[in-house]
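Table S2 (continued). Query chain:
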Amino acid sequence: MNRRQSLKRLAAATATFALPAMAQDKTIVLGQSAALTGPAAQLGIQMRAGANLYFEALNAAGGVNGHRIELVTLDDGYEPDRCKSNTDRLIKDKVFALFGYVGTPTSLAALPLVTEAKIPFFAPFTGAEALRDPFNRYIFHVRASYFQETALIVNQLVSLGLRKIAVFHQDDAYGKAGFEGVRRALKARSLEPVATGTVVRNSVDVAQAVKSIVPIRPDAVVQISAYKSCAAFIRQARKAGYGGTFYNVSFVGTQALADELGAQGNGVVVSQVMPFPFSTTTVISREYLEAMRKSGKDAKPNYSSMEGYIAAKVFAEGFKRAGASPSRDGLITGLESLQNANFGGFNVNFGPRSHVASNFVDLSMLTEDGKVRH
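Corresponding output:
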């Protein structure tokens, strides 16, 4: 089986999200493993949709240096073993680079394969330190870290006089990374979490976590999980009489959380690592919203697809700098040359020993009508 036939079979494997066959030899194929089904599906669906929004417009305008960019996505259901299997398959089928993986435990499962294959691993949807330290030449991050998000959350809470802070987190590498961020930020203020509760990945069994946290009456609960379990915890904690506030990190899936909670989401805070995607306040948001309008697809703006869009735009610029005959090493060099680059109000600063593009963090709040306020 030649490479083109193999990649076509990869595309066919994602039947619900079927991709067009490679149209020409100068098509560059990127591989992605992400949740397209299961309780975290909206994270993968939206990340992929935002990336394709950019890539499709780019290809329609002639691509990059005469090359089209095509994204092949395999569903891992947000499960590490499936992600590892997908990654092995994508590497064996000689995709040019890996792009937009969704999640900490899944990305960590792929990490040994990435390092062994020396394949660029671009813009994983995770802020975990384990993928940032120690430095890995093949990994490029577009987003800020969970340590930065949780530091902002703790600073906000303490500045409001809220010092009794509990943590509800997923019982895996993602949840532990976020919990460690909260713990560090609190320790810097001579504080510690007053209570903790956990949930198994891809489940909504939060009863024990509610029992562990609510009786302590914390001022606020910082949540480090995906939207289904966070929404379940909020609903059950409220039902148990909890009247404090809830804070989440960006990976929760902001719009998905708002959709899950409806009016019950009013006042829930989410930290963000991308520009506000719902208005034209920045150049990149205007471009994103216009691309969405021109696509004619029945899609609504959200932070997760904005992240995919920006990741695709940054990747394309690095790829452009790789030259007319791009190689993986050329891509790495091209990306590392993106120093103090402004992408419509979103600043990117890579370098030969720095593969974290952005330190941008912000806060947003859900409203009672299911929307997001900046």
